[in-house]
């Protein structure tokens, strides 16, 4: 979100990409799940593969919902646009950038 200051504002973001080296922040949002009112944020290497990212980070987080079934997420979006991940590619190759929002839908009974 842009800041409109009434004076000189010289405070660079404390979460800017350059502070993370080869890592980046990726937000993951399970849409329409009342257990997760906001996206989770993961710090990950940009070179990590999609499959590793899902298996090592997203699945354990999503498993907080007892209805979660790995492999059930559908309707993926990347930064609000419909998108289809490719398990064989890295996050960087998939166009997932610093502070990107990846969202999905999955069945839940809650």
Automatic annotation (TrEMBL):
<dbReference type="InterPro" id="IPR043010">
    <property type="entry name" value="Phenol_hydroxylase_sf"/>
</dbReference>
<dbReference type="Pfam" id="PF04663">
    <property type="entry name" value="Phenol_monoox"/>
</dbReference>
<protein>
    <submittedName>
        <fullName>Phenol hydroxylase</fullName>
    </submittedName>
</protein>
<dbReference type="GO" id="GO:0018662">
    <property type="term" value="F:phenol 2-monooxygenase activity"/>
</dbReference>
<dbReference type="InterPro" id="IPR006756">
    <property type="entry name" value="Phenol_hydroxylase"/>
</dbReference>
